[in-house]
Amino acid sequence: MTIEEAVARIAAQGESAPRLARDPVNPAMINNWLEALGDQNPRYAEEGVAPPAMAQVWTMNGLHGQRAEDDPMGAMMAVLDEAGYTSVVATNSEQNYRRLLRHGEHVAATTRLDDVVGPKRTALGEGYFVTTTTTWYVGDEVVADMLFRVLKFKPKPAQSGVLRPVISKDTEFFWEGTKAGELRIQRWGDKLRHPPGPMPPDGDLDAKPDWVVASGRGTVYSYVVHHRPAVPGKKLPFVIALVELEEGVRMLGEVLDVDTVGIGQPVQAAFVKVDEDLTLPAWRVAE
């Protein structure tokens, strides 16, 4: 069976059977989410509702979960794996929220295959763009939906050089800033966010972000000394630190010219030029 024939067969099956969430919408999971994202909006606790962007959380399979047999994404991934397209990267996700979910509601999700486009030549390698739509229900009511697209590709042969970030329309301003010697932080109104994202913390769909330039000063919040495995373009071992900037956000980067650091140690932003197109943010221990 050709890839095109497999696409037609899987698409003709339509939506998968509803997959019921393991747990109802609950405040414990909401609190964990809010803490992880640093979201302090009191509305969720006061009104007994969940952040809209949690729609996908409720129906995740979990650490040891298995895809359903009629899951179209799983079926399409297996077809492309067999054809040699063994690597995958998510390219974009578009979510629509019909209303906020309330404590105690039990969510179910269905997924359909929309299209598969390819083969296409990309910077990552030749591949196929696979698009699905997932719809979330409470009973018969549609509460959210998501268009999700991945690139399933044949990786290019390994090359020397550094690992390069995937730059999107949401992060382009940040990488333009590093080329200019600036740490730019996304701003939604009076709220700062890093890493940058497509949605504001309060879920306002009409809001538009801008950015501010950070001072570059901060302290080590956490760190790791990386010994293995090998990393392209890096001499082992090296230190990666999560730094809490003066502005309140946290940012990852290599700490240059040291063997280790300490929690709370002051650092200053540095910039490592890789080539004309890429400059990486890094840290130096402050004098």
Automatic annotation (TrEMBL):
Any matching Pfam family: OB_ChsH2_C
Residues in FAS1-like dehydratase domain copies: 22-145
Gene3D superfamilies found in the cross-reference section: Hotdog Thioesterase
Coiled coil: none
GO molecular function: DNA binding
SUPFAM superfamilies: Nucleic acid-binding proteins, Thioesterase/thiol ester dehydrase-isomerase
Segments forming domain ChsH2 C-terminal OB-fold: 211-272
Keywords: DNA-binding
Superkingdom assignment: Bacteria
Protein name as catalogued: DNA-binding protein
Species this protein is from: Amycolatopsis acidiphila
